[in-house]
Amino acid sequence: MASLCSPPLSSPALSPPALSCPVCHMFSYSSSSFSDNGTCNKCSLFVALEARVSELEARFSPLSDTPAERPTLVIGSSIVRNVKLATPGAIVKCIPGARAGDIESFLKLLAKDKRRYSKIVIHVGGNDTRLRQSEVTKINVSSVCEYAKTMSDSVVFSGPLPNVTSDDMFSRMSSFHRWLSRWCPANDVGFIDNWTPFWGKPEQLPTQSFSIETVSVPRPPTLFKDKTNRRGVHHKNLIKIKSTSPTVKNKRIKCGLLNIRSLSSKAVLVNELISDYDIDLFCLTETWLQENEYVSLNESTPPSHYNTHIPRSTGRGGGVGAIFDSSLLINPKPKLNYNSFESLVLSLTHPTWKTLQPILFVTVYRAPGPYSEFLSEFAEFASGLILKTDKVIIVGDFNIHVDNHNNSLSTAFISLLDSIGFCQSVNKPTHCLNHTLDLVLSYGVEIDNLIVFPQNPLLSDHFLITFEFILLDYKPLCRNFYSRCLSDSAVAKFKETIPSVLNSMPCLTVTEDLSASFSPSQIDHLVDSITGSLRTTLDSIAPLKKKIIKQRRLAPWYSQQTRKLKQEARKSERKWRATKLEESHLVWQDNLRTYRKALRNARAAYYSSLIEENKNNPRFLFSTVARLTENHSSTEPSIPLGLSSNDFMSFFNDKIITIRDKIHTFCLQQALICILIQQVWKQL
């Protein structure tokens, strides 16, 4: 019976194939339930009906002279919450706490309506920056802009606001702003610069600023009605205290860069250059100094500055150095050995930066030659720096023509900087052959007021570069002293007041016999009382005034004669740059040589007179020689990490034993000499 109702198991080909609708995914074995296009009969009917309705709507839709104007879409995080545009039909979409990925997802929801916009303005990036993933943020921003282009022919990106809530956020926001200002024009995206208009104007920023990630719900107004609550507090009697934002003290650091090409013959000119331009940190490349050669470096250092340098390990030439203000807490880092370039790494710290990482300031010199090894080593070097801290400045002579975009080395180097996240700020020639060789690279630091000065033929064939950067929340460590203004009138008044002050003290009216019986403690009390009374009187007449010690001083050999020659050289330089005549150029160079010779003679005369005046003071002479020949670095002698207390004790123990042995040997020698002398006298 079963065999009559069902087909045999051995013949599966008799069962029809299973069919599925691609629209509603209906499953059926019957081919009659499907149309020729593969969809089920029901879905085919709905598709045909929808096409007919669309045809009728298009046929009988109301006609107009001009098409409807496309609206403008403004979309972003909570910063656009209260934005109101005068453009009719503008749409503002606020997504609190949104990141770039959230904006793209919302645009995809809007794209389902198949509606196009005349312009899309996007404000996002503040919340992405908090994730501390710069490269991921850039990729997400690029993605949301590319998707917005499918919905509008005009896409505009609104840049971030200047966030000064913390040093770390300011650095990241500033770096994101710089990247966005370059990326938008290069990718046909409009850019709204919010950084410059709102910088230094916190009163114009919205109260709910910088894209907060949570939505604050306002309290009901019933909580603040004019009545006494159950705790007995009457809100009308409370005083409203105005909240003030904490003031941030910033310090501008002025830096300089110059390829000096032998510092030995130009030390006095460098000294004067630092003082004239008021440079806090001056970087030198190609110093051509040897190991433990500090005479030229010390002569080029003003009295208020320190210096450090790293010579080339093998061969002649090369070398990098730095001269910096003594008020800056700068410490050189250990030397890093690379074959393709030389480097000097400085760490700028401050006691007030308890939770912030230091700023690394690096001076680099790359000699001309093959660049394959340099690219790999510099990539490793720069990547290691940004892993240690989030603020890095690299300056130096790279010998790369970054102004030549057809140069393979220049293209590879710029691509390397972009991949790591460094910003190159020099866009003018820095060499006499009109090439840009000296560069200023920054990571997480905003470079301001970069100036490339004209060439000075007496200094170098490279141009001087100066720039500034800001240190946030920096409190200078100033050394103070107190002084009194003891004028003639103050001294006369003090003399007049002394008798009345002394007569008012009862202990001074005792007789001489009674004072002879005073104990030492009574005498000490008497002296302290008189001293306190005199000091109080002096403070009332000539009080102590606090003054800050200013360290900036000119070189001691700078005189009126050298100042006059310098003015003449500057005057001839201005004349030559205005006329461009060869005669004026020769006059300028002649005045420069005269001024340079006068500086050398003044320096020699200064030290000659110093030695002559102190020829009977060997201590002063030795200290002067040490000041000229020893290192003037701010670093203190370091103690090896492996040194233990036992090693420290053994060192002094051995030293004492050595001294005792020497004393014992010396005494034995003296005793033998005395015995020999006595024997000789006996024989005589």
TrEMBL record:
Which positions carry the signal peptide feature in this UniProt record? none
Q: Where is the Endonuclease/exonuclease/phosphatase domain?
A: 258-462
In terms of superkingdom, the source organism counts as Eukaryota
Gene3D superfamilies reported for this sequence: 3.40.50.12690, 3.40.50.12700, Endonuclease/exonuclease/phosphatase (3.60.10.10)
According to the UniProt entry, its GO molecular function terms are: catalytic activity
Q: Name one Pfam family in it.
A: Exo_endo_phos
Family matches, as PANTHER family: ENDO/EXONUCLEASE/PHOSPHATASE DOMAIN-CONTAINING PROTEIN (PTHR46670), ENDONUCLEASE_EXONUCLEASE_PHOSPHATASE DOMAIN-CONTAINING PROTEIN (PTHR46670:SF3)
What's the protein called, per UniProt?
Answer: Endonuclease/exonuclease/phosphatase domain-containing protein
What is the source species?
A: Collichthys lucidus
